[in-house]
């Protein structure tokens, strides 16, 4: 049950920064990263981010250099934010909650990234309207108890 198995984990365009280059420094949060990219592709109907994401790693050594991988991911995410805010992309994500979910899932530092259970309790996933609870965005897995009961409209589709 070693979560840091050998080789590349997942499809190249969906690989989390910590798993790029066949690194063994990863855990199940690589799946949260991939889910964030799937969410992005579903919202836009294409892999707009994958090219920027993959280009950010050109020239990096194949293994090690964890901080350089995080820096490359952060640079790609900055380009994504500019694209989203300039082209009305935030609305396609379902507004501020969708953007908060995306940013929490695509956090380059896995220690700060949402866990899978926290992702599933995120207000956007639950269809709860209003600002995201800080705990769910910070990645510690906590959502407000009143948010757990639902009652809000489903996310815009």
Automatic annotation (TrEMBL):
Highest taxon of the lineage: Eukaryota
Biased composition (Gly residues): 148-157
Gene Ontology MF term list: ATP binding; protein kinase activity
Region (Disordered) residue spans: 131-157
UniProt signal peptide: none
Domain Protein kinase, residue spans: 1-125
Alphabetized Gene3D superfamilies for the sequence: Transferase(Phosphotransferase) domain 1 (1.10.510.10)
InterPro entries given in the database record: Kinase-like_dom_sf, Prot_kinase_dom
Pfam families recorded: Pkinase (PF00069)
Protein name per its UniProtKB record: Protein kinase domain-containing protein
């Amino acid at each position: 049950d070693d979560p840091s198995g050998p080789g590349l984990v997942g499809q190249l365009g969906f690989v989390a920064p910590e798993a790029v280059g066949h690194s063994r420094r990863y855990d199940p949060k690589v799946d949260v990263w991939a889910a964030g990219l799937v969410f992005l592709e579903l919202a836009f109907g294409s892999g707009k981010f994958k090219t920027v994401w993959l280009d950010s790693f050109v020239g990096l050594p194949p293994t090690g250099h964890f901080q350089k991988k995080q820096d490359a991911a952060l640079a790609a995410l900055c380009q994504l934010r500019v694209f989203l805010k300039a082209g009305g992309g935030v609305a396609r994500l379902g507004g501020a909650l969708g953007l908060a979910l995306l940013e929490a899932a695509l956090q380059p530092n896995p220690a700060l990234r949402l866990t899978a259970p926290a992702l599933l309790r995120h207000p956007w996933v639950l269809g709860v309207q209003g600002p995201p609870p800080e705990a769910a965005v910070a990645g510690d897995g906590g959502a407000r108890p009143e948010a757990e009961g639902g009652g809000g409209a489903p996310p815009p589709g």
